[in-house]
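ok, trying the design again with the full structure, not the truncated one.
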């Protein structure tokens, strides 16, 4: 959990920014959040593959 804490904080901060963003910024921060989540998903899948026999 200690390794995940910085990622969770960053995702929460981006989500708060998304809630307060105006129209042009909204798309930028939405893309940032999607890229961050896609990166984490890819890392999670890679770790799951490495752990399987």
């Amino acid at each position: 959990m200690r390794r995940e804490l910085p990622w969770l904080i960053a995702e929460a901060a981006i989500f708060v920014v998304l809630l307060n963003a105006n129209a042009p910024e909204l798309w930028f921060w939405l893309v940032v959040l999607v890229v961050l989540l896609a990166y984490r998903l890819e890392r999670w899948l890679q770790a799951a593959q490495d752990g399987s026999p």
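Keeping the full-length input from now on. Residues 26 and 53 are 43 Å apart (CA to CA).
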